[in-house]
Each structure stands twice: as structure tokens, then as C-alpha cells.
Design a protein that fits this description.
The complex is a heterodimer of chains A (201) and B (106).
Chain A (H helix, E strand, L loop, with lengths): L8 H4 L20 H23 L8 H19 L1 H7 L2 H24 L11 H8 L3 H33 L15 H14 L1
Chain B lengths: L1 H29 L3 H27 L3 H30 L13
Helix pairs in contact in B: 1-2, 2-3
Classes of the chains: A mainly alpha (201), B mainly alpha (106).
Chain lengths: 201, 106
């Protein structure tokens, strides 16, 4: 790539210092054209596959957990390709957290409903006298569609939300707030500060 | 006759797939630094997986599953080198100098 070999060195120095204290002849990081293009091509297929795994979970291999993980990986790919900070701005934090919260709430609602109707936790057939005529479903069909509802609206939401949240939390980095925690530092930062002190002296 | 050719092609593809996967695994263990490892992991591994999946597609014949296998092959060919590219870029960005002759192995 032409912008790699320092064709415009002045404006593209990133201000870091090498181990010998010389400003590095490296360009400032720019998003890779290759990764962006590939991600743009692949995303529709991955999203479709994730939704397929989620919606088909009740009678084929797969399910809410796997499908939710694949759906979350779509957003991880977007973050890798277009920059984590810009993705964080685009994808509101409240949406990520809300996805997980709504998932837990729906799972709980569907799960505790049969308890109120006098059954056990997640005993879907207890919904039959209440909703059977309304939805036109037979008793045994409630098992399948109840499971689908829990998988799609509960587990897939929770898993995709939590995985996205964990990724962004990890990407934000860890800065120890107290000295007792600052045992191991980032290797490069340590080297940089050391050389900076040397040159200052 | 055609059946014999098909089986021959399957055997050749499986053997080539095994060979390239072996080369890739050896490279990941033996090569000296991140960049050369990423290069063997993307190139040889893509070719190995491609040959293995081609063998699978030939074995299945004309079936709906074959379409899925070919799709899988296409996506491996697209995404595997991109992943290696991303790793190499990230390593370069972190300030890792590429290995040159005479350097220590890392």
C-alpha cells in the first residue's frame, strides 16, 4: 500500500516514539479498504444465517444462543471494519443494554406465566385454555411455539445484547484507578514513558 | 468411466487438502513471527480447506447440500485472507517489526 511507505511523512506521523526515541515513520491508523469491503459483502449473509439459526432453533440444530451469537458477531465485524469508536457512537449503549434487559423480561414473563395459571415454570401447555381459541393452536403446539418464543424473544435478545456489551466493554480498555491495581501495565505504554523520560533528562 | 474419474478427483482433492493443511500447520508452528504465521495461516489453510470442501462437494454430487458446501467454500475464500489481513494490520499498528534474516525467533 502506498500510504505505508511514508510518502507523506509529515502529516502522517502518529506521534509515538520508537525504542531509540525517534518518532516512528508510521502512518496514523486508517480503516482498511479490504476489511471494509469484505465486511460489506459478508454482513447480509451472516445476518440471514443468524436469523435462520434463531428462527429454526426449535426443530433443527441451532437455537437462540447460537443465533444470537452470530447476530452479535455482525456488529463485532462492523466494529472491526469501521472503527470501534464510530460504531459505539452509532450503536447507542442503551440499545445494547436494553436488548439484554428486554430479553430477560420476556423470558421471565413467558416463564412465570404458567405459575400464575397454576402450573410449573415454563409449562407452556398451561396457556392453552387461555390463548388456544385466540391463536387457533392445539395444546401440543404450545410446546413448540412457546419454546420458539423463549428462544427468539428471550435468549437470542439476551445473548446478542450481552455479547455486544462485553465486546464494547473489552474494547474500551482497562485503566486501573488505584495504585494497588497497577501491577502490570501495557508493554508499549511502559516502553514509551521510559524513553520519554530519557529524552527529557 | 465418469464414476472412476470422479472418485479419482475426490482422492486427489482430499490428498491436496491434507497436504496444504499440513503445510499450514507446520508453518504456524515453525515460522518466526506474527506476519509470516498470518501469511501461512491464510494462504495454505485457505487452499487446504478449499480442496477439502471441493472433495465434499464432489462426493455429494448434485444435491441441495452441495450448494451449501460451495457457498461455504466461497465464504472461506473471501473471509480467511481478510482475517489474516486484519491480524497483520493490527500487529503492524501495534509496532511489531517484521522478522528479517538473523533476527531472534519470536
Amino acid at each position: 500500500m502506498s500510504d505505508r511507505d511514508g510518502s507523506r511523512p509529515d502529516e502522517r506521523l502518529d506521534g509515538r516514539l520508537d525504542s531509540d526515541g525517534v518518532a516512528r515513520q508510521r502512518p496514523v491508523y486508517s480503516e482498511s479498504q479490504v476489511i471494509m469491503t469484505t465486511v460489506k459483502v459478508v454482513i447480509p449473509f451472516v445476518m440471514t444465517y443468524g436469523l435462520f439459526i434463531t428462527f429454526h432453533g426449535a426443530d433443527t440444530p441451532g437455537g437462540g444462543f447460537q443465533g444470537g451469537a452470530i447476530i452479535a458477531s455482525v456488529f463485532l465485524m462492523i466494529a472491526f471494519a469501521f472503527g470501534i469508536e464510530s460504531t459505539r457512537e452509532w450503536l447507542a449503549n442503551s440499545l445494547v443494554v436494553g436488548l439484554g434487559t428486554v430479553g430477560v423480561f420476556i423470558f421471565g414473563a413467558i416463564g412465570f406465566g404458567p405459575l400464575l395459571l397454576g402450573g410449573n415454570f415454563l409449562e407452556y401447555t398451561r396457556y392453552e385454555p387461555l390463548l388456544g381459541d385466540l391463536l387457533g393452536l392445539k395444546e401440543y403446539e404450545f410446546v413448540k411455539y412457546g419454546m420458539e418464543a423463549v428462544e427468539i424473544l428471550g435468549i437470542a435478545f439476551i445473548v446478542s445484547g450481552v455479547l455486544m456489551g462485553l465486546f464494547f466493554a473489552l474494547a474500551a480498555g482497562y485503566s486501573p484507578s488505584t495504585d494497588s491495581l497497577a501491577v502490570t501495565g501495557d508493554r508499549r505504554d511502559g516502553a514509551d514513558t521510559a524513553t520519554m523520560e530519557d529524552t527529557d533528562d | 468411466m465418469i464414476e472412476a474419474i470422479r472418485i479419482g478427483l475426490i482422492v486427489v482433492a482430499v490428498v491436496l487438502g491434507l497436504f496444504f493443511t499440513f503445510v499450514s500447520a507446520t508453518g504456524v508452528i515453525r515460522l518466526p513471527d506474527v506476519f509470516s504465521r498470518a501469511h501461512t495461516a491464510s494462504q495454505a489453510d485457505t487452499l487446504g480447506a478449499g480442496f477439502a470442501l471441493a472433495a465434499v462437494a464432489l462426493t455429494l454430487g448434485w444435491e441441495p447440500t452441495t450448494v451449501k458446501t460451495v457457498l461455504l467454500l466461497v465464504f472461506i475464500f473471501v473471509t480467511n485472507p481478510t482475517a489474516a489481513h486484519a491480524i497483520a494490520r493490527a500487529a503492524y499498528e501495534e509496532g511489531i517489526e517484521p522478522w528479517t534474516t538473523g533476527d531472534e525467533r519470536r
